[in-house]
């Protein structure tokens, strides 16, 4: 005689389950996803800008590191050249990538905060409707915070450079007839 332990376990019968009730009612209509008319949210833009900033900065810094590595090779042997290239590209690539990624993170956070606080409604009576308000606040504040440890003069200069960059890009967009939108990488 077989023991109960030797038999495989039996599953209960699932015939009495109505899948329409479990799923909350299956309809023939399609289910639509949420759509934001303004585009991506501020957190999506923050993550995207930080990632793209790090990637672009690492690439540009790595290319500069290859250039400096080629010019500073003390020996003509292949292994020494490769070592110099890898050392210099890693050094400059990581420095520039981290710097641009941090600035992109700060810019996106300050821009998102000024959008959430709806700063444009406070500046509307002074300058009217301007697409520059939130990008300018983001660029000034990110420059000031990024260089705040270097002193107030350097921080103010850094914020001014950020503001000038956004203003210059806006001027180029106006001259070329492009749409100025702050929905992609940083303010571009």
From TrEMBL:
Pfam family, one: Tim17
Any one GO molecular function term: protein transmembrane transporter activity
Keywords per UniProt: Membrane, Transmembrane, Transmembrane helix
TM helices/strands, residue ranges: none
Subcellular compartments: Membrane
GO CC terms, sorted: TIM23 mitochondrial import inner membrane translocase complex
GO annotation, biological process: protein import into mitochondrial matrix
PANTHER family according to UniProt: SD19278P, TIM23
Protein name per the record: Mitochondrial import inner membrane translocase subunit TIM23
Membrane topology: Multi-pass membrane protein
ATP-binding recorded as keyword: no
InterPro entries membership: Tim23-like
